[in-house]
Amino acid sequence: MQNQIPVKRKELPRSCYISCRFFPESKSPTVLRYPKVWEMGFLDLLVVALMPVLKVLLVTAVGLFLRIEKINLLGPEAANYLNKIVFYLFSPALLVSNLAQTITYKSLVTLWFMPLNVLLTCLVGSSLGWILIKITKTPRHLRGAVIGCCSAGNLGNLLLIVIPALCEESNNPFSNISTCSTNAKAYASLSMAIGSICTWSYTYPLVRAYAITTREQSSIQSSEAASEPSSDSCTEQLLTPSYSQGSGKIKLPHTNLQERRKIPLIEKMVRCLEKVLVPSAIGAMVGLIIGVISPLRNVLIGNNAPLRVLGGSAALIGQAEIPVITLIMGANLLQGLKRSEMNVTAILGVIAVRNVCLPLLGIGVVKAADYFGMVGSDSLYRFVLMFQYAVPPAINVGTMAQLFQSGQGETSIILFWTYALASISLTLWSTLFMSLVS
């Protein structure tokens, strides 16, 4: 059209497109600005968001294949032992290595809002999960799986893949590639650490509470221990499970109420700490200590560190966590496909909580925090805070179900469908988040 004046690309700011038009009424140029995120295009964002989720689904399919009767390399007993290795070794090693390499005292002070943000996702998610099990009347032994999937999000693995991938795009809406990639790894590592602490210190006791209560009711229906509160623990439902050799089944302690009341207060506090300080939480704390304290960091981390072999060994061990827990999820999925007591409404409810309710809440929380100046000016940081609300459930929820031998198949079904739909939901939410922070 003759009234349009072309504008050279090099004259435009890096953060927007500008289209100049003459309107016949005013004969003056009007500048229209569009967020630069639209430069990437929907297909580009789709590929970026789809790749990590597709990898998870493919590895899940391999785990399912290894579980079929003709192969039977990943049966219930093998999966149980692998889960214990993940719980006690792989997960702590991954947290120690990643945090020690990426987190410093300066970055920890700057990112102080992220722990509060992750805690809020867990609290609101578990509250929505509790409402969901009441509405859908979920069987008691499956309630822990529903609440766990609503509460714990994949705040580590996906962020470590998706956020750096976004930074590698030449037209990303954040900053130059090198700065964006460096910040992305730090944000994702801290998110993984805080998410792991919340998952194993908050979600894990919730899942354990329903699993143990179910076993108590089935094995000792007339016992008063299942109904009366105990004075030696945080709550009666948070009894520490112990595993018998070779069976992997939970043994419940049998002590009368009078004996429990005689336990000293200090010992009660120690038992409560043992329920909270699981190996992953301890690994996260150790990694933060190494990263924050410069002398320790210089000794263990870096090409010239004298004890760098220790840090390298921990990183090598930790790398095994993601594929192992994904294979186990696929193996458990076969059991759930054969026989599942999970209500379809409950599965749809979990999908709605994680893909609709929490992301909308995340937009409101981060926008409010930005208004009060609590999150700084880094657009990538604000994007990560929003992204934490939109991720699918943590795969470690399947590990918890496997540890307690309760609802493994049903949990795998929930994880499978939430991850299958995540390729679409993450793409849409990522596009919206980037347009809001640009």
Automatic annotation (TrEMBL):
Q: Could you tell me where this protein is found in the cell?
A: Endoplasmic reticulum membrane
Matching Pfam families, A to Z? Mem_trans
Taxonomy, superkingdom: Eukaryota
**Repeat in keyword set:** no
Name the residues that span the membrane: 45-66, 86-105, 111-133, 145-166, 186-207, 276-296, 316-334, 346-366, 386-404, 416-437
State whether keyword Transmembrane helix applies.
yes
Q: Which UniProt keywords apply?
A: Auxin signaling pathway, Endoplasmic reticulum, Membrane, Transmembrane, Transmembrane helix, Transport
What protein family is recorded? Answer: Belongs to the auxin efflux carrier (TC 2.A.69.2) family.
Q: What does this protein do?
A: Involved in cellular auxin homeostasis by regulating auxin metabolism. Regulates intracellular auxin accumulation at the endoplasmic reticulum and thus auxin availability for nuclear auxin signaling.
Please identify the protein, giving its name as recorded.
Protein PIN-LIKES 3-like
